[in-house]
Write a structure and sequence with these properties.
It is built from 8 helices and 23 strands. The protein is an alpha+beta fold and about 450 residues long. The strands form 5 sheets. It has a 9-stranded mixed sheet. The chain is globular.
Length: about 450
């Protein structure tokens, strides 16, 4: 088995990867949420679309789109998939392959579409279908990852522009470059040679998502943090960077960009790397120790469907908790009501609420939480007369964002540069967001 710490090293270091299997990916299907296969790509042999029936069967059994199993076996194939931006990337495998290896590659494909087209959407892919096929041809060679670095691909296949599209249409030319990328021939394939900037800058975004389940009393049942460090590096020459942290020991299950020297991390817990030019994901990490995970909000709730007559009561208050004095913003509370709820007549002290009687979804858009005056939503809910009362209360799903705070407590200590004499401008930004944050009532 291949550890997640070296998966990113294997996928797309700019060279063909050797793995003990005959072929990694045979075919790739892109499927939208309505079940339409809007793009397919085959390497060597063509695999029939009918293989996707096994995927559709698994999708039909999943409670939500995000819950489709990532690995689906069939009599002659394995279907390994990811769900990104309302698109399923479904790969077809005919021999045993480490699943995380394929999943990492599929994420690279989605990120490359985002990088090239500004968004990874069905419309953007259809509008740039020629470039999509050119990218897939370069990213995977005979079923194995070849070039998955943005710097290399942008020298091989020029990103689309309106002018270039018009010229290509008139002349019949393509976006494929005529020369081999400079990085492809070097020992540092992720960085092109001869990079020059007037302003030398290095920016890092520490983005953390907190997944949590709280019970009725507010006690944490489950909590973990998924974090990433995204970098935007615009530095002249061939800089060698070292990024250190105040408290690196709290990080579990780290995964690095191929540029990071893994042995240095194991020995000293610092990130030492020669960076790619431009935007890239430096590392991703996991914090799973529940005593290390701070819960940023608390919820007071009183939801009762058993009042007399055909009415129930709804009363929810949201407040900040363990935010280190930072403002909680972008707060949205979503409640999937039981089928017997016909309507909701509520009053919000802050923000706006909507209730869809067809989907039975109540959405309360709060915005920023003012600690001095906590937002509250309360009132009566109308129930179907004669219908049995729900056995369980609904779960509250919460979205939120906190600027300039990494909820794990991770902090960048310093960034040092070697190999170049100029002094770059450096910046670090922290963001905490809610992933799957649920409160049981």
């Amino acid at each position: 088995p291949i550890s997640t710490a070296i998966l990113a090293q294997l996928v797309g270091g700019g060279c063909v990867v050797s793995v003990s299997c005959r072929k990694m990916i045979h075919s790739l299907f892109l499927i939208n949420t309505t079940g339409d296969i809007f793009l397919e790509k085959h390497w060597k042999s063509v695999v029939s679309r009918s293989v996707c029936d096994y995927f559709f069967e698994a999708q039909g059994k999943a409670s939500e789109l995000e819950n489709v199993p990532p690995v689906i076996p069939s009599p002659h194939h394995y279907l390994i998939n990811i769900f990104r931006e309302n698109i399923f990337f479904v790969s077809v495998i005919q021999s045993e392959v480490p699943p995380l290896f394929v999943i990492e590659f599929l994420h690279r494909v989605a990120e490359m579409f985002q990088d090239y087209f500004g968004e990874c959407s069905e419309a953007a892919i259809k509008d740039n279908v020629v470039i999509v096929y050119e990218l897939l041809e370069e990213m995977l060679d005979n079923g194995f990852p070849l070039a998955t670095e943005s710097n290399i691909l942008k020298e091989l296949i020029r990103p689309p522009t309106i002018l270039r599209s018009v010229v290509n249409t008139i002349t019949g030319s393509s976006n494929v470059g005529e020369t081999l990328p400079t990085g492809q021939l070097s020992c540092i394939p992720w960085r092109r040679a001869g990079v020059k900037y007037t302003n030398n800058e290095a920016y890092f975004d520490v983005v953390e998502e907190i997944d949590a389940i709280l019970d009725k009393s507010g006690t944490t049942v489950f909590a973990e943090i998924q974090g990433v460090i995204d970098a935007c590096i615009k530095l002249t020459g061939m800089p060698d960077l070292t990024l250190s942290f105040m408290n690196p020991r709290l990080l579990d299950d780290v995964s690095f960009h191929p540029s990071v020297r893994f042995k240095r991390w194991e020995a000293e817990r610092v990130l030492s790397f020669i960076p790619p030019d431009g935007n890239f994901r430096l590392m991703s990490y996991h914090v799973s120790a529940q005593n290390m995970v701070a819960i940023p909000v608390y919820v007071k709730h009183n939801i009762n469907f058993r009042e007399s007559g055909s009415c129930g009561r709804f009363d929810v208050t949201v407040g900040p908790k363990q935010t280190m004095g930072k403002m909680v913003e972008g707060v949205v509370v979503t409640v999937h009501m039981p089928k017997v709820v016909l309507n909701a007549n509520l009053i919000a002290t802050q923000g706006n609420y909507t209730y869809d009687p067809v989907t039975k979804i109540l959405t309360w858009d709060i915005g920023k939480i003012n600690p001095q005056k906590l937002p509250n939503l309360k009132g009566m809910i109308s129930l179907q007369s004669g219908a049995p009362r729900p056995e369980e209360n609904p779960t509250l799903n919460i979205q939120l964002k906190i600027q300039q705070l990494a909820i794990s407590g991770l902090k960048v200590n310093r960034l040092d540069m070697f190999g170049e004499k100029y002094k770059p401008f450096k910046g670090v930004k922290y963001i905490t967001k809610a992933g799957k944050f649920q409160v049981r009532t």
